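The instructor's notes for this session suggest beginning with a concrete chain rather than abstract definitions. Hand out the sequence below and ask the class to guess, before any prediction is shown, which regions might be ordered.
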Amino acid sequence: MVERTELSKLGKVAILKHLTKGVKCKHETSGLGFAEDAATINTQPELNTLVSQKLFLEGIHFDLVYTPLKHLGYKLVVAAVSDIYAMNGEPRQLLLNVGVSSRFSLEDLEDLYDGVYTAADFYHLDLIKTDVTSSLTGLSLSMTAMGTSLEGTKTLRSGAKPTDLICVTGDLGSAYMGLQLLEREKRVFAGVKGDFTPALEGREYIIERQLRPRVPVSVLSALQKQGVVPSSMISISDGLASELKYLAEASGVGVRVYEDRLPIDYETAAMAEEFGLNVTTVALNGGDDYELLFTIPLGQMDQVKDIEGLRIIGHITEPSLGACLVARDGTELELVAQGWTASK
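After discussion, reveal the predicted structure:
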């Protein structure tokens, strides 16, 4: 009998490591991207081409009960280009494949593409190729983003060094709490007969963070103006704890982050309390933030400490110290990643 390994027993990183184990490039211009946010194609001596991919499946990554198609198209672009920005690159082109079932109309596709074009205009991108095919399982979306980076400024996950400062942009956990609110209202709607008005007043920020996120381009621009090139960087899509562990493993280091330094918006904290959730757990493990996690040398702290939208949350340590959260009372807790699983 052939042994069967259930995907639910593994995380995304373990699955991808297994499937790409032993893969080697056949061309000098190819740079493997399995352990990075994006793959690299070295077409010119000083200029790298970066390529990232995102796959969105209906019922897994989005629910059309509360996700407008225009917002979905916009979010798909953000998800793809965030990985280019996470390598300190500049996204330029998009390629989109759509699998669509017969329950969708041309007008539905127009809304979807309108969202894609809106995001493309905002981030100054060109949609250069797209295809549409039939699907028996609803809506499937595959987006490829391409961009460039100069050889001396490209940032990998593997460059963090002990004593480097750990920084994040924006705030954490808001997209996750927006999702919890939308899911709750969906359940309420399912049990209501007649007219229904969802209870979303005063929660606009966390809903927007879930449905229409943005990449913190302004922070990257501020770093460039200060002449700061992060020593390592990663996009926060699977949750801060997961990304910290990815970065630590790639760099061969340990991490210390401080609970009282985690940036959490008021709406996120209030919604977490309403749901009976620990707000620190939400900030560490909530996905879809599309903020950036990066490290910089300790000596550059004065250059970044006043940048709006940037928060220093910890530092890099020797690998023997592991990956830990320092609680408000000083207790050190091992970071546990609760990111993507095959059962989602």
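Then share the key points. Residues 340-344 have pLDDT under 50 and may be disordered. The longest helix spans residues 69-85.
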